Amino acid sequence: MTNTQTPLVLDIKGNSLDDGPGIRSVIFFKGCPLSCVWCHNPESKKAGPEIAFDKGRCIDCGACRETCPEQALSKANPFYIDRKRCTLCFACVAACPSGALEQVGKEMPVTDILEQVLPDKPFFDASGGGVTLSGGEPTLFMDFTADLLTAIKREDIHTLVETCGLFDAERFVTMLYPMLDTIYFDIKIIDPTAHKTYCGVPNDRILANFATLFARAPKDGKTLLPRTPLIPGITDTEKNITDIAAFLKKLGVTQSALLAYNPLWHDKTDKIGTPDPYKTDKAMTAFADNSVLEKSRKIFAEAGIET
Ligand code: SF4
Ligand code: SF4
């Protein structure tokens, strides 16, 4: 489950107001042990590099087709790139004048990441913000993430990790936990069969890890916030929301977060050439109406959990 390789970074987003308190820089890692069918960042699922093609930016100059040594590019290919032929040399990316082709995932040493986020420290300090590690799954790369968190903490910056919860708890507590101020922990589905179906893995370890952390986080002065994305017909069913509320209530959780569905991930699947079985699904291609969120909030409130 743990990967000792240096992770690839998808992006570093500055000035974020959506990924924790205050103004934050968000570092998106590439690679995740789950494979949620609705993944908001489908390009973050695989740990290795990929190539993306943005049809809307292509001016059809042909430079990439002339450059490719593998003849992997053709308008006849469903997603332009024949990924069976492509060797990920990225010569076409360098040749493209419009930015339509993009290398997805780049190695960045800790020093380079720090260099990029440190100029925003005055904004972090003024707003109560900091750095958020997201993905993908930052805990998939325990060694690198520990080095990165150590470097960030040395600069006295608030740290937050967004995790799917599937990790080796002992290593997490030893290597990452001491340098974390806040942990956003996804609790998506309680039914084990449904979790395996929609997220690709069983959920027993995830639920156990949450319980382990919740038993100690408050007294260690850390914020541990469970979060549930409301995915139409998958996680937002009355049964699943009731089950999650019951699971959290039993542990003594009084604060949680419910995340409204955002369908924008569909735009990304064509770019990286992955199948999208929900592309024409009415509920999965629309923004959720507020009633879904309100209904779920009511169930949580009845269990004594604020959202
Ligand atoms: S990355 Fe290299 S092999 Fe792949 S399509 Fe581009 S030029 Fe061809
Ligand atoms: S080089 Fe870029 S703009 Fe030109 S055809 Fe290729 S993808 Fe399109």
UniProtKB/TrEMBL annotation:
Database matches in Pfam families: Fer4, Radical_SAM
Cofactor requirements of the protein: [4Fe-4S] cluster
Membrane spanning stretches: none
SUPFAM superfamilies, alphabetized: 4Fe-4S ferredoxins, Radical SAM enzymes
Residues in the signal sequence: none
An example Gene Ontology molecular-function term: metal ion binding
Domain 4Fe-4S ferredoxin-type: 49-78, 79-106
Keywords: 4Fe-4S, Iron, Iron-sulfur, Metal-binding, Oxidoreductase, S-adenosyl-L-methionine
Record-linked InterPro entries: 4Fe4S_Fe-S-bd, 4Fe4S_Fe_S_CS, Aldolase_TIM, BssD/PflA/YjjW, Organic_radical-activating, Organic_radical_activase, Radical_activat_CS, rSAM
EC category name: oxidoreductase
Domain Radical SAM core: residue ranges: 18-306
Database matches in PROSITE patterns: 4FE4S_FER_1, 4FE4S_FER_2, RADICAL_ACTIVATING, RADICAL_SAM
Presence of keyword Flavoprotein: no
Subunit structure: Monomer.
Family: Belongs to the organic radical-activating enzymes family.
Protein's UniProt name: Glycyl-radical enzyme activating protein family
Organism for this UniProt entry: Desulfosudis oleivorans (strain DSM 6200 / JCM 39069 / Hxd3)
